[in-house]
Amino acid sequence: MIQIDRLGKTYPGNPHPALHEISLTIEDGAVYGILGRSGAGKSSLIRCLNLLERPTSGRIIIDGRDITALNAQDLRRQRQRTGMIFQQFNLLHARNVAENVAVPLEIAGVGRSERAGRVAELLDLVGLGDKSRAFPSQLSGGQKQRVGIARALAARPAYLLCDEATSALDPETTASVLALLDNIHSQLGLTIVLITHELEVVKAICSHAALLENGRLMESGKLSSLLLDPASRLGQALLPDQEVERAFLRRHGIEGRLLCEVA
Ligand SMILES: Nc1ncnc2c1ncn2[C@@H]1O[C@H](COP(=O)(O)OP(=O)(O)OP(=O)(O)O)[C@@H](O)[C@H]1O
């Protein structure tokens, strides 16, 4: 479980806090989407969760331990429990696919033959069994992100952090990467935290969602609760706007058609 407790982040030279007293609990097994516009503080928040950024205030308690207070050795161990994937994939261009996926295993001191077996298993999991010797420049965006996902899972993390993982991809590739994450979530049962500016991403795979605005957490909770709460902005945003859809049908001369039928 991840407990974010009054987390604050202010960058040197920028008087406006990027994060303001954020408190949020992410239960084990959740797929938690954190939604916000550009500049809302999404990257700052997710980067604080594995201390790629140091919070200015507050605590991040993962599995009962405040990670902001860990010594260097314990922090290294903690980081192995947390995989991360990035919008721009962050692959090593001079290394082939298998060598990229092997990086966390090398860092963890896993031996050569065990590494090779684990890498083959991971590439099969992400559907790239035939690309192990290809270089990143020879892959599509979706394939690069699959390599990123395999690398993030290499050390068998309990948490997967996704930093705008599909924002650089077209809609079809986005759907296939989200389906892969959904499949990994059901197969491995890990906890996924993803930040996004796309409502569709939340709709596609999240069990929980939070709304971040100007560094503040506006609301958060289970999708089922947000959808049932008439005051929830997230809940409203997640449902289709029937007036917009009716106007669309009118514009194309199709009126009076049922938008959906409930059995
Ligand atoms: N290294 C930095 N130094 C100073 N200010 C920063 C730094 N990084 C981010 N900020 C500021 O913190 C605020 C939140 O930025 P952040 O990148 O976390 O938002 P975001 O929601 O991820 O935006 P985007 O979707 O555009 O990446 C912004 O006002 C931004 O200008």
UniProtKB/TrEMBL annotation:
Pfam family, one: ABC_tran
Record-level Gene Ontology MF annotations: ATP binding; ATP hydrolysis activity
One BP annotation, GO: amino acid transport
UniProt function note: Part of the ABC transporter FtsEX involved in cellular division. Important for assembly or stability of the septal ring.
Family named by the database record: Belongs to the ABC transporter superfamily.
Keyword Membrane: yes
Membrane topology qualifier: Peripheral membrane protein
Entry superkingdom: Bacteria
Domain ABC transporter: 2-239
Keywords assigned: Amino-acid transport, ATP-binding, Cell membrane, Membrane, Nucleotide-binding, Translocase, Transport
One term under GO cellular component: plasma membrane
Listed transmembrane segments: none
Record protein name field: Cell division ATP-binding protein FtsE
Location, primary (coarse class): membrane
Compartments, record wording: Cell inner membrane
